């Protein structure tokens, strides 16, 4: 419940900042096109600062089918959400950057035939970096990769099991900057 209230509060806090005090970015990624998908990154960078602060939310659903019959076995929904921090090598905010985030990773796996569900979640430190640049006067793009080695997320049902050892967050964002 607390995670659902954080994005609106974050947006309100950033909206209260003076318009000339820095740059606010709203980016979306390709997970929006996935089944039950969401891919959003909100970010604020103070004027002429190398640091930017943000919030990341991503969700996607995978369906796993029996390779012989084509019958749907399980549906697995994964969510990543939490605050982000980036250090830009250029004070304009364009170019290479390093960053980190504290993301809550959660997954719910549901067996389609039996209705059985299993869930797991973990809050982990992700670190990585990427490259960002401008598109015209008010657009931007961001390509980055963040990893959390050793972090485990495991779900099991009577028909399947899923175990991730080491999580990652690939960011392919396009958006608007204000």
Write up what this structure looks like.
With 178 residues, this protein is mainly beta. Helices cover 8% and strands 67% of the residues. It has one helix spanning 2-15; strands spanning 22-28, 38-46, 51-65, 72-88, 95-111, 117-135, 139-156, 161-177. Strands 1-2-3-4-5-6-7-8 form an eight-stranded antiparallel beta barrel. It is elongated. The two termini are 29 Å apart.
For the secondary structure, the number of strands is 8
Would you list the SSEs in sequence order as H and E?
HEEEEEEEE
Tally of separate helices: 1
Give the overall shape: elongated
Q: Cα distance, first to last residue?
A: 29 Å
Mean of all residue-level pLDDT scores: 87
Give the radius of gyration: 18 Å
Question: Helix/strand-derived class?
Answer: mainly beta
Strand order, sheet with most strands: 1-2-3-4-5-6-7-8
How do the helices and strands line up, and which of them pair or pack?
Elements: H1 2-15, E1 22-28, E2 38-46, E3 51-65, E4 72-88, E5 95-111, E6 117-135, E7 139-156, E8 161-177
Antiparallel strand pairs: 1-2, 1-8, 2-3, 3-4, 4-5, 5-6, 6-7, 7-8
């Amino acid at each position: 419940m607390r995670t659902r209230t954080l994005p609106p509060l974050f947006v309100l806090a950033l909206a209260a900042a003076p318009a000339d005090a820095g740059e606010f970015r709203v980016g979306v990624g390709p997970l929006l096109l996935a089944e039950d998908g969401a891919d959003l990154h909100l970010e604020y960078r103070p004027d002429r600062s190398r640091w930017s602060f943000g919030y990341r939310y991503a969700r996607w659903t995978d369906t796993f089918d029996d390779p012989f019959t084509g019958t749907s076995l399980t549906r697995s929904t994964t969510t990543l959400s939490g605050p982000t921090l980036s250090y830009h090598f250029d004070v304009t905010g364009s170019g290479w950057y390093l960053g980190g985030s504290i993301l809550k990773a959660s997954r719910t796996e549901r067996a389609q035939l039996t209705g059985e569900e299993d869930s797991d979640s973990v809050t982990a430190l992700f670190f990585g970096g990427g490259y960002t640049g401008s598109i015209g006067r008010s657009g931007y793009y961001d390509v980055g990769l963040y990893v959390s080695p050793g972090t485990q997320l495991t779900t099991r049902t009577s028909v399947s099991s899923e175990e991730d050892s080491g999580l990652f967050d690939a960011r392919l964002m396009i958006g608007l900057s204000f």
